[in-house]
């Protein structure tokens, strides 16, 4: 059967699987190197084929339903003569019975290294390519990696380097290194199959053997056809400019306004008013009266002016009745705080779908339901369910969890991390995370995008939007619902089912999304990306006030893929001129407890000048002020020989020195365009993560511990590699 007819068979018959021989014919047509073999129908033909192939040979049973041949005893290895072939053929026929369609004769291939590769279709993201450790260890070790088709050659090359057993692809026990070009060609071929033949549901190549000369060959293969997936119905995209308009309402109506403290209808009103929002505010409640000293209208129709945004907190079953009222009043946008929709039960899902349909017909856009609100410091809009008021900045936060989003806003305010805007996307009945990415892509004030998500609504669109946006501005993401327990929680919380976590990780790698595992890492990276120049490599110089701290940080760098390079003689000579003879004379550079800030600044500058350094981590300089002040207060209590004036002047001096140090760090980054990540020695109420410096593009950043600084730098390097991949 020629390849065209074979592919047509896949598309039309709906059979459970192709035979091994048929599977390999398709794979070969797409550039996958497969073993030479002969299909025969009898023992005599098997013997003839074995003689022609040359002993030793492998004999296999052949049939569309014979999927686990090894377990059933249908694979016989290392057959060295005619009799061995006949005996094997007889045993195969007896075991396979009516399922047997023929016999497969292959040469016995020599090679110690077995890998696995294949394809399957993810419900959300489509065709996914897998590569990893093969043979009997595939399931036991689960040493595999994934990418979503279509692959680039760079994607395929990265897959080879990501598995733990990647050393087996090099020279190994007298065998030559695997031919990477052949492996990449095989992965690219699978990718093409995934995109061009949607009727193929699964492909399994195991083992993909590396022969002793390094050549690659598929020894066993299975293709499972399936029904072509029907086109899924996705929510219509929202125009990116419409997303921007949501954050700049000229007037707001609160439908469900309440005078009871603690209720949503009261919190949102008072937080919006106290935040300084300059637009018109209208309160609506059937009871009328006054709330927060303002007149309350009894209906939407009674509002005298135009309304850009309607904030709704009435019970879920009353929301649908608002659609015609909004349409009559020409209110185009609804911020639906109310819960009890798709995140609750089947009835809630049906109600949410109907609401979205009716809103779409009426030309109304719903943000939510089940959201914590929206925030835009650039127009003093703080319409959220907590009293938070972050600074203006360049970091946009979109969160499918309102509580987590509000927590991030609060921490951002404490740590002086500027916010471009925040939105709790809730159940995403109409506006999805994909819409927000595309809206923020064109927003000139957004430089960093922070996402907390538990699901995506359109996987392919998510990938395309994230990859395109990620080339312009970093996207930092925390994914909820990755474990079994997490999946259950996500389902009950947002009405969403998570994709396989490994597949989602692959999507992040391919799109340049910087994926983190902990919520505070979101803000740590927001601080770095918004304040520091991007490192152009992974070589780190460490400047430390104490040796032990430096050693620990160097160990962390090694674990996170950062290089701590050895200092060449010329660098040792340059630093020798700054530090006393007993300094560590190595990287990390222990400045031996020198309390003069100018010394650490001078050492850092020498590292920044050095071509062998891409970034500096400085440990324990900021925060020395606190120790100095404690000493001053101790002296004040016990030593009358020092006047209060003298001690007060000393306290002011250490404050000044720290401010100057922060400024000098930012100016050095301005000069050398390399990041400096600080770690504070101690913290008090004056400490925060980001320090704005006048007349500087960059800001000084100081973390609470080395772990956070190293993790951030590693992720920044990861993003740089994506930009230049």
Task: Report on this structure.
The chain has 725 residues and is α/β, with parallel strands linked by helices. It has 24 helices and 30 strands. Among the domains are: 240-530, Succinyl-CoA synthetase domains (Rossmann fold); 532-723, Rossmann fold (3-Layer(aba) Sandwich), CATH 3.40.50. The protein has a 7-stranded mixed sheet with strand order 13-14-12-11-15-16-17, with helices on both faces. Strands 19-18-21-20-22-23-24 form a 7-stranded mixed sheet, with helices on both faces. A hairpin with a 2-residue loop joins β13 (290-291) and β14. The chain is flat and about 105 Å long. Mean pLDDT is 91; it is low at 485-499.
Give the structure's gist in a few sentences.
Helices cover 40% and strands 20% of the residues. It has 725 residues and is an alpha/beta fold. Helix 13 crosses helix 18, helix 18 (519-531) crosses helix 24 (706-723) and helix 21 (597-609) packs parallel to helix 23 (644-672).
């Amino acid at each position: 059967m020629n390849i065209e007819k074979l592919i047509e068979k896949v598309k039309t018959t709906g059979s459970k699987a192709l035979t091994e021989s048929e599977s390999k014919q398709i794979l070969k047509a797409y550039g996958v190197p497969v073993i030479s073999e002969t299909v025969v129908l009898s023992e005599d033909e098997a013997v003839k084929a074995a003689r022609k192939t040359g002993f030793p040979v492998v004999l296999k049973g052949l049939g569309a339903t014979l999927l686990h041949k090894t377990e059933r005893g249908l694979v016989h290895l290392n057959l060295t003569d005619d009799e061995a072939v006949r005996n094997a053929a007889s045993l195969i026929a007896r075991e396979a019975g009516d399922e047997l369609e023929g016999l497969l004769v292959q040469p016995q291939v020599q090679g110690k290294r077995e890998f696995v590769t294949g394809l399957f279709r993810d419900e959300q993201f489509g065709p996914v390519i897998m590569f990893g450790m093969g043979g009997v260890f595939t399931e036991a070790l689960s040493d595999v990696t994934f990418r979503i088709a279509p692959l680039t050659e760079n994607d395929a090359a990265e897959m080879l380097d990501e598995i733990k057993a990647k050393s087996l692809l090099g020279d190994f026990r007298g065998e030559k290194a695997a031919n990477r070009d052949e492996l990449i060609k095989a992965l690219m071929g699978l990718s093409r199959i995934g995109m061009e033949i949607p009727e193929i549901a699964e492909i399994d190549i195991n083992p993909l053997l590396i022969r002793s000369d390094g050549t690659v060959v598929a020894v066993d293969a299975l293709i499972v056809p399936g029904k072509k997936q029907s086109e899924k119905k996705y929510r219509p995209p929202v125009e990116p400019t419409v997303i921007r308009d949501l954050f700049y309402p000229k007037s707001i109506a609160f439908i469900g306004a309440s005078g009871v403290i603690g209720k949503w209808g009261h919190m949102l009103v008072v937080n919006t008013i106290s935040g300084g929002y300059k637009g018109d505010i209208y309160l609506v409640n059937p009871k009328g009266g006054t709330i927060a000293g303002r007149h309350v209208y009894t209906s939407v129709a009674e509002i005298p002016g135009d309304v850009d945004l309607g904030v709704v907190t009435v019970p879920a079953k009353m929301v649908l009745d608002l659609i015609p009222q909004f349409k009559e009043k020409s209110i185009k946008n609804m911020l639906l705080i109310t819960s009890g929709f798709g995140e609750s039960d089947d009835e809630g899902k049906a109600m949410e779908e109907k609401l979205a349909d009716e809103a779409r017909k009426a030309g109304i856009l719903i943000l939510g339901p089940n959201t914590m609100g929206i925030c835009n410091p650039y127009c003093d809009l703080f319409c959220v369910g907590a009293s938070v008021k972050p600074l203006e900045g360049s970091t946009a936060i979109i969160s499918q969890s309102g509580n987590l989003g509000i927590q991030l806003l609060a921490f951002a305010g404490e740590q002086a991390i500027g916010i471009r805007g925040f939105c709790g996307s809730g159940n995403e009945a109409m506006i999805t995370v994909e819409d927000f990415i595309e809206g923020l892509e064109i927003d000139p004030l957004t430089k960093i995008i922070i996402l907390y998500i538990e699901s995506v609504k359109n996987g392919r669109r998510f990938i395309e939007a994230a990859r395109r946006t990620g080339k312009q501005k970093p996207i930092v993401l925390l994914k909820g619902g990755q474990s079994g327990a997490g999946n259950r929680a996500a389902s009950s919380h947002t009405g969403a089912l998570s994709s396989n976590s490994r597949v989602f990780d692959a999507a992040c790698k391919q799109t340049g999304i910087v994926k983190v595992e902990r919520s505070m890492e979101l803000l740590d990276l927001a601080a770095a990306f918004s304040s520091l120049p991007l490192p152009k490599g992974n070589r780190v110089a460490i400047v430390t006030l104490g040796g032990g701290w430096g050693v620990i940080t160097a160990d962390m760098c090694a674990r996170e893929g950062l290089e701590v390079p050895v200092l060449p003689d010329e660098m040792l000579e340059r630093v020798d001129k700054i530090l006393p003879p007993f300094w560590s004379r190595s990287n990390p550079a222990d400045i031996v407890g020198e309390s003069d800030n100018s010394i650490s600044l001078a050492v850092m500058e020498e590292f920044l000048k050095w071509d062998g350094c891409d970034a500096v981590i400085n440990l324990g300089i900021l925060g020395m002020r606190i120790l100095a002040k404690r000493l001053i207060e101790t002296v004040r209590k016990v030593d009358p020989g020092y006047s209060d004036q003298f001690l007060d002047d000393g306290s002011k001096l250490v404050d000044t020195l720290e401010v100057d140090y922060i400024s000098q760090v930012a100016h050095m980054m301005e000069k050398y365009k390399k990041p400096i990540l600080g770690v504070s020695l101690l913290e008090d109420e004056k400490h925060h993560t980001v320090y704005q410096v006048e007349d500087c593009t960059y800001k000084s950043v100081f973390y609470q511990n080395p772990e956070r600084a190293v993790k951030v730098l590693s992720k920044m390097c990861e993003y740089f590699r994506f930009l230049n991949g």
